[in-house]
């Protein structure tokens, strides 16, 4: 059905735009002719209330879909395990939580946008009005006109009349911000004391990171650098990266007479000392050792530690010495830990709290 099939008295009343009449003939003062605006074509929603109702239900459906997607976002965040993965063709295996959160959040945003666009294109007024340019400082009559236009636009938006659209829109816009509120859950709970402790405990064997075998004192030569992990920690473990980031060891054998720090000597075994491999600046792994000076260097920001003097900082931005692990030898002749680190490893600012 087109506007030509509707009696003139049934068509919506259009605003008068003759005050902005176009110049249709070029002359000396107006060298370029302005063809003006094309005749206005009425939409089916303007002349058929049933079509307008269908558009209203469509907009309401989209707002409702946004609400459901927001609820789905919150449910996915709460119920899906972070380490669960799913197979999605053709992407492959991805995090189930990331996929669900991205999908529901995208649908929620898209539905609100699509509803707003459909509402504007089918139910709000689409009459084009040519307006004269005016100075930046608007005179009182222009301000009054703007207010009148705003009130007219509010009336033409049919927000008061289309209660279904209004209520579902308010519901979608009110519910959607809850997605961001739920994300605040990751700010807690507080870590408690878990950052102060590692897997090391009394009796845990020192296992070579390369051979995956327990270490004997004879395996560590003077001047050598060996990396170790706690007994029972395997690379295929689900929390391997979390645990090794706190428990990684750097083992060096010094001549006992070269050890300057008294506690370092007491916590060592026959000159074998075990220090955290995690730099106390920003947590980079330390992997460089100079056997002549007994200095360990962090490759990230060049923090330098003296392993013969309690691993104190002698250069660089690190704030404090590397934590030392007290070690000994068990009845079978293997190196073992005699407890956990006495202080948090890495950039452990929290131990000063």
From TrEMBL:
Subcellular locations according to the entry: Cell membrane
Family: Belongs to the Rieske iron-sulfur protein family.
One Gene Ontology MF term: monooxygenase activity
Topological category with respect to the lipid bilayer: Multi-pass membrane protein
UniProt keyword terms in alphabetical order: 2Fe-2S, Cell membrane, Disulfide bond, Electron transport, Iron, Iron-sulfur, Membrane, Metal-binding, Oxidoreductase, Respiratory chain, Transmembrane, Transmembrane helix, Transport
Subunit structure: The cytochrome bc1 complex is composed of a cytochrome b (QcrB), the Rieske iron-sulfur protein (QcrA) and a diheme cytochrome c (QcrC) subunit.
Every Rieske domain range: 241-336
Function, as annotated: Iron-sulfur subunit of the cytochrome bc1 complex, an essential component of the respiratory electron transport chain required for ATP synthesis. The bc1 complex catalyzes the oxidation of menaquinol and the reduction of cytochrome c in the respiratory chain. The bc1 complex operates through a Q-cycle mechanism that couples electron transfer to generation of the proton gradient that drives ATP synthesis.
Name the record gives this protein: Cytochrome bc1 complex Rieske iron-sulfur subunit
SUPFAM superfamilies referenced in this protein's UniProt entry, alphabetically: ISP domain (SSF50022)
Entry GO terms, CC: plasma membrane
Domain of life: Bacteria
TM regions (residue ranges): 59-80, 100-120, 164-184
PROSITE patterns per UniProt: RIESKE
Entry keyword annotation includes Disulfide bond: yes
């Amino acid at each position: 059905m087109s506007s030509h099939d509707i009696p003139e008295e049934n068509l919506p009343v259009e605003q008068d735009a003759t005050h902005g009449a176009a110049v249709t003939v070029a002359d000396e003062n107006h060298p370029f002719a302005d063809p003006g605006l094309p005749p206005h074509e009425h939409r089916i929603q303007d002349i058929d209330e049933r079509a307008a109702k269908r558009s209203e239900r469509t907009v309401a459906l989209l707002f409702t879909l946004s609400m459901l997607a927001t609820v789905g976002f919150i449910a996915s965040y709460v119920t899906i395990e972070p380490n669960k993965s799913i197979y999605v063709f053709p992407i492959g295996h991805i995090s189930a939580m990331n996929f669900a959160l991205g999908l529901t959040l995208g649908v929620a945003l898209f539905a609100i946008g699509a509803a707003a666009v459909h509402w504007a294109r089918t139910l709000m007024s689409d009459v084009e009005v040519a307006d004269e340019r005016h100075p930046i400082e608007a005179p009182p009559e222009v301000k009054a006109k703007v207010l009148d236009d705003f009130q007219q636009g509010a009336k033409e938006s049919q927000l008061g009349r289309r209660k279904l659209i209004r209520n579902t829109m308010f519901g979608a816009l009110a519910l959607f911000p809850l997605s961001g509120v739920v994300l605040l859950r990751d700010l807690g709970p507080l870590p408690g004391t878990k950052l102060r402790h590692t897997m090391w405990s009394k009796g845990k064997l020192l296992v070579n990171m390369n051979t995956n075998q327990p270490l004997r004192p004879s395996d560590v030569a003077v001047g050598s650098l060996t990396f170790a992990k706690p007994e029972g920690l395997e690379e295929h473990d689900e929390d391997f990266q979390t645990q090794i980031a706190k428990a990684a060891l750097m083992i060096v054998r010094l001549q006992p007479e070269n050890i300057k720090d008294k506690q370092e000597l007491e916590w060592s075994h026959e000159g074998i000392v075990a220090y955290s491999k995690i730099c106390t600046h920003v947590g980079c792994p330390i992997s460089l050792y100079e056997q002549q000076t007994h200095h360990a260097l962090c490759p990230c920001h060049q923090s330098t530690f003296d392993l013969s003097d309690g691993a104190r900082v002698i250069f660089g931005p690190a704030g404090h010495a590397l934590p030392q692990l007290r070690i000994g030898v068990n009845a079978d002749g293997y190196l073992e830990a005699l407890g956990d680190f006495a202080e948090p490893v890495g950039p452990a600012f929290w131990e000063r709290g």
